[in-house]
Amino acid sequence: MSGLDALMPVVGDELPARVLGPLTLTDIVRFAGACGDFNPLHHDVAAARQSGFDAPIAMGQLTAGMAGAWLADWCGIERMRHLEVRFAAPVLVGDTVTFAGSITKIDDGGERAVAHIEFTAARGGVVVALGSSSVTLAAPA
After folding, report:
1. Residue 84 maps to which CATH number?
2. Can you say whether residue 124 is alpha, beta or left, with left for phi > 0 and alpha for psi between -120 and 50 degrees?
3. Is residue 1 one of the residues assigned to a domain?
4. How many domains does the chain have?
5. Mind giving me the DSSP string for 46-95?
6. pTM above 0.85, yes or no
7. pLDDT score for 112
């Protein structure tokens, strides 16, 4: 059962926040293996420091993937229609990321209404990503 099954959401409703982390080097290396991004900034401490970072940085798509998983867990993957993420700051090894968002609009889609969601991902008060999503409010037949 998803978070949408409990009651019909309305504009202004906040999604349950999710805190993930701290992100480990192993998390990043596993994701590199899955996506094929082996840029040394993502796994080599010396390369990251040479580039001005205190630690290796996560791929933006790892942050986007965590956002997508958070939303899918809330609404059910079968209801997701759209996901867009804009990266604002790097996520480093050791960071804890908090995802939070709210419903900004609901369209009456005839048989199925669609909720539009705006969200942020932040580490220590710094926004690392901004995003939007749309989800159907009625379970597909």
Report:
1. 3.10.129.10
2. left
3. no
4. 1
5. HHHHHTT-SS-B--HHHHHHHHHHHHHHHH-GGGEEEEEEEE-S--BTT-
6. yes
7. 82
